[in-house]
Amino acid sequence: MDDTNLRKILKESKIVAVVGLSPDPERDSHEVAHYLQQAGYKIVPVNPKAEEILGEKAYPDLNSIPEKIDVVDIFRRPEHVPPVVEEAIKVGAKTVWMQLGVVNKEAARRAHEAGLNVVMDRCMLREHKRLLVP
Prior knowledge:
single chain; Rossmann fold; alpha/beta; five-stranded parallel beta sheet
């Protein structure tokens, strides 16, 4: 994924479902989601153990989210990524974004074949700061 495409994804996306978003402010997922929220994205927490995170209603899975999702930002271990990608395809997400340290080439291939943009092993917060913050 080159910078031109990353910039396009970051500029055109409005709704980000954060899979594995922790209610704990000390966790990376919380920090990234909070940053994205402050940057103007609508964050949709996906965590079956939470009711609400960062002031937003949490959902147990992508299928439960009533609105269209632009980016599925994944904070799960690599072995848990394939079912998330299948849900992302099913709900019509535009992009699957696997956070720093999350690499699953088979899931990436599946998402790409289904027509989704795929970003792997990159931090959405860092890329946003690098590409869009002057």
